Structure formats: structure tokens, C-alpha cells
Amino acid sequence: MWREALVLYLLLTSLQLLLARENITAAVSPQDCSLECVQQGGPGCEYCRVTRADVQRILGFRPIEAFGSCIPWPCFELLGEEDPEVCKHYVHAPNDVTVEFLQDPNPKSDTIVVSWKPSYYGIAFLRGFQVSLQALGGSHMACQLFLFHRNLSLSASHAQRVYKSDPFPGLLLGTQYAITVMALPVPEQWERFYHSKTFSTRSCAEKIGFEQCKKDWYPKHIDVQQNGTDVTVTFNLAPPSLGIKGYFSLCYANGMKKYMNIRPNSSKNTTHHSYQLHGLQEGINYTCEIAADEVDAVRKTFRVLITPVQQKALPLTAIPPLALILLLGLSLAAIFTILLAVLIKRRPKLQMKKSFIRPDIIEHHQQRSTAGEVMLPPSNRSTPPRLLICYSRQDGPAHVRAVMQLGVFIQQHMATKVCLDLWDSLSVAEEGTMGWHCRQIQECDFVLVICSRGLNYRSQLCHLDTEAGYDEHEEADKELGWGSNTSSCAAAIPLIRMEVGHAIARGRDLSKYMTATFEYSEETDIPTELRLVSHYTLTRDLPLLFSHLHGVALHRPGRCLKIEHVSEEGFTKSPAGAALQLAICEASMALRDKELHHMEGRD
To answer: What is the helix (H) or strand (E) element at residue 338, kind and residue range?
Structure first.
């Protein structure tokens, strides 16, 4: 009898342990509870969302809308008034941060929810989490704040629990975002209190299907038929729901291009349309593209080869008589014999002339004959290079957007990790502008300074005597239209100038430092101290910048470097390249309007 009782006891104990473990590992979602319940430590307030209204009531003013219910150092403001000791201990950054897509009825946006696990380092003093979302290269921001009640003390076993955020709705499709999960409280000097992760939302085709996306649609079925030198092309039309009324075709070969607008008649056929290509030359392989006549439409590529038209056979009556054929054959044999004798006599002279041919001409001919070969860059680097981009905000928000789009393009298409203060605002706020730039200059493999009029002007002010006070500088800024806000380059340029000076004095390599100007800037905008380093004009020198970052040669004997989406002509075919080109154009227009306004103000 006692054996059966012992077995039953062990079974019940194992079942209780399994249930307890399931309760620990189960995902914890935010609760609806008041901030007073969190502060007083009442029951049912273990993991609560803090609303924007609660933050406004505690602080006494309306917080910035983009930050939602998040505020700097929320533990001290919301839980530390009665007991300051609650917020003095630090905790380690969360881990296992994952992003999950939810069902979103809006076909033009995505909704996500973030989950994570707390670290067991300092978990007994954990008071909550702050989750922030920011679009890379954009201004979209969102933030959520979650707090435990003040009397809660978690054990190390709770590090296996999965905590979730509230949904983040309205995210643009096909866009990169950065999600940051921060553990609270946040100490003044600590580097590991948050965990950041980048992700991309789904494309339109992935979410609602290829046939429902106007931007992603392209003809899938293309049939090519030749009739003499004319070619008939048949392709499938877009669904009527997309509202695409026009298409275009582009064929090119050997520097020749043929463009054609296509306007199908939907009343005759709603599924397919045929058009003809005229004037194509025989024996040439044409590369053709067809797409909807829309902005950033995806192009379908196909090839057309015009085969020579065979001549009709001559009738028997047109065949020349046998005597004429024999006479023609004898004439050709005689001509061939005379030419052979002349060549034999002139052969020594040809050999003598051949020795006077310069070897550089032969080498030039050999290089031209193999110029079409392509050399791909070596991939022997284990980790991508880190690039710090420094710039000036004095030239306006359009210039800042151009810099951000450049960083997005380099990170997507140049296999390079980009460090930009706009993407790491938490670290900049924690370390300070000077400390952040100093650390990045030491840790990054390369430093790229985007030179502009505002950056050069601010760099010149750094050489002026500070005893004159900043009032004169502020008045000069206002007179020139630069504004009075201090830019990040005010801290970065002196550091870079000092590092470059040390490298020159000690005879070190200067390849770590580079300067670049957009099309609307000039070489005179480069500070004097940085004119000894490599300089690139963007977007013309994108291949040279890629060669500098990865240490590969653009040209070798008989070979050339070819990287997709990096050439001057092909970078706009990618979405990031098109956005970069648009941002540069907008910045150029904004700078021109600013100069005109400044000249009118002087008049």
C-alpha cells in the first residue's frame, strides 16, 4: 500500500513542477491597470502599460507625441518619489528580442508585436521595460512604457519568462525599422541596459499577393514572334483593380535605344496586348524591358535576336550555263595564283615591318579585346567594415535627409555597417555628443565627412578665439542664414582634424579618413585640414567609394569591377538609390531657395 502512495505522490509533485514551469515560460502580455496601482503595489498590477494620460498627470505637462508614454529615466519620475532606493540598482539588457507580424486589415501597412526575455543579472531590481520603434532614414517614432509594481521582486527563474509589448500598428510596407528594448531603471553610467534590433516589414506582394500590388506588379508572360525584321511582342495586362492604363517598352543594344509608349484598348482585350517593334537590325541581340508606366515600376527583361532573313531559291531557268561557270572558276584561280605570288615576294618586308610595331600598341589592343570581362570583388572579409558618417545640420533638414539616405544606401548595397548619430540617439544621449563621436572614431574602420557650406563655416569658427564670446558667432550665423543650433560636426570635426594631424606627423596611413560632397556642394567647402585625405563626389564616385571601403581595384588588365546597384548609371534602379537621388535633388533646391531668400533679404 505504501508503494502505491509513494508513486502517486511523485506523480503529483512532477505535475506541479511542470505546471509551475509552464506558468514561468508562458508569454506575459501587458495589463490594463492604473499608475496608482503600480506605485502602491496592489494586487493585479504585476505588468502594467503606462498610458500617455498617466505620464501627463504625473509630469504636469504634455509629453512629445512621438514618444507616446515614454519619458527619460521613467523609474525615478514614476516610482522613486516615495522610496529613492527603488531606482538605484541597474539591470542588464533584455535578450532574445523577436518581432512578430500580426494581421492588419489595412493593405498598405503592417502591425508588429515585440517579445523578449529579461536578463537574470539584476532581475531582483527590475522595475519595467521601455520599447521604442524608429524608421531607418525617416522620422516615424513610437514608444511604449511598461512597469512592475514597486513591491515586486523577481527571482532568477523569471528570466525564462517571455514579455510582450502592445501592438505597433501603421508601419509602412517594405521599410526598415529599429526596435529598442530598454530595461528599467537606467543608471547614469552603464552601457548594457538596452538591446536594439533592425528588421524590415513585409513587402506588398508578401502581404496581399503579387496581383494586388501596383508598385510590385510586372508582366509575367511575354511571347516574342519575328516576322521578317519586325517583331511582335505579346504580354499579359495588369488586373483592372490596379488602375494601370499605360505601359512602356525600352530596347537597347550597342549604344542604341528604342523607347515606345503603349496604351492598350481595354474594351477589346482585358488580359493580353500585342505591339510591334520596327527598325531592329539583323544579327543584333537586343535587351528589352517592359513595365507599367508608373513611378518605380518593376521592369520585366527579355531578349530579342533578329535572325537574318533567308533568300528565296532561284528557279532552274536562272541557273547559269556550265560554260560560264567554268570560265568564272578559271578566272578566280588565276587571280588567286597572282595574289599568292605577290604575297610570297613581300613576306620578308612584312616581317621587317612587324618588328617595328610598338609593344604598347599590342598591349593596348589586347586590353581592348578583353575589356568586356567582369571581375567580382573578393569576399574574404569575415565581418563588414564599419563606417562613421559625420555631417552638418547647419545646411537644413533636406541636407540631413540626403545624409540619412546615403547611409541607408551604403548599408544596403555596399556591404558596410554604417554608424550615424541619428540612428543611435540613445547612446548619444547617454555618452554625450563628444564621447559618442570619440568612441566611434576609435572603433570604426573608416570615417566619412560629408562636407558642405555649413560644415566648413562651423569648422572655421572652431579656429576663432573663444574669448570674443559666442554672441558674435550667433549673430554671424543668423546673418548668413545658418541658424543657431549646434550641429554634431562641432564635436566630430576637431577630433577628426586632430587624428589626421597625428597620422600625418607620424607618417601613418590616411586611408581611414575620407571626405565627400554632394552635387550641390563644392570642393571649397572641404575644411583645409581634411584636404589631404581622399575625396569623392556623390553620386558620381559611388564605385570609387566602394573600392575604398573594401580595398579592391576597379580595373585590372583585361578586367573591371562590376557591383550591382553601385554604378553611377545603375544605382537609381534600386529603391534606396532612387530615394538617395530624390533627397539630393530636394536638398539642392532647398539650398538654392535659401540663397535666393538671403540675397533678397540683403536687398
So the answer is: helix 322-354
Extract the C-alpha cell encoding 388.
Answer: 562613421
Give the CATH superfamily of 210-305: Immunoglobulins (2.60.40.10)
pTM: 0.44
Q: DSSP letter for 189, please.
A: S
Task: Please check whether the domain covering 386-602 is classified as CATH 3.40.50.11530.
Answer: yes
Give the separation between CA 134 and CA 353, rounded to whole angstroms: 72
Of 275, 273, 303, 282, give the one whose Cα is nearest residue 228. 282
DSSP state of 358: -
Q: CB 381: neighbour CB atoms within 10 A?
A: 11
Tens of pLDDT, residue by residue over 273-331, are: 999 888 788 878 888 999 988 877 888 888 888 777 654 444 444 445 666 777 777 78
CA–CA gap between residue 197 and residue 211 (Å, rounded): 32
> Of 425, 422, 398, which Cα lies nearest the Cα of 411?
422
Q: Parallel, antiparallel, or unpaired for β 128-135 and 141-147? A: antiparallel
Superfamily covering domain 19-208: Immunoglobulins (2.60.40.10)
How many whole angstroms separate alpha carbon 340 and alpha carbon 345? 9
304-322: b (≥16 Cβ within 10 Å) or e: bebeeeeeeeeeeeeeeee
The amino acid that residue 256 corresponds to is M
For residue 9, is pLDDT > 70? no
What does the buried/exposed string (b/e) look like for 531-567 if buried means 16 or more CB atoms within 10 Å of the residue's CB? eebbbbbbbebbbbbbbbbbeeeeeeeebebebebbb
Q: Rounded CA gap, 225 and 102, in Å?
A: 47
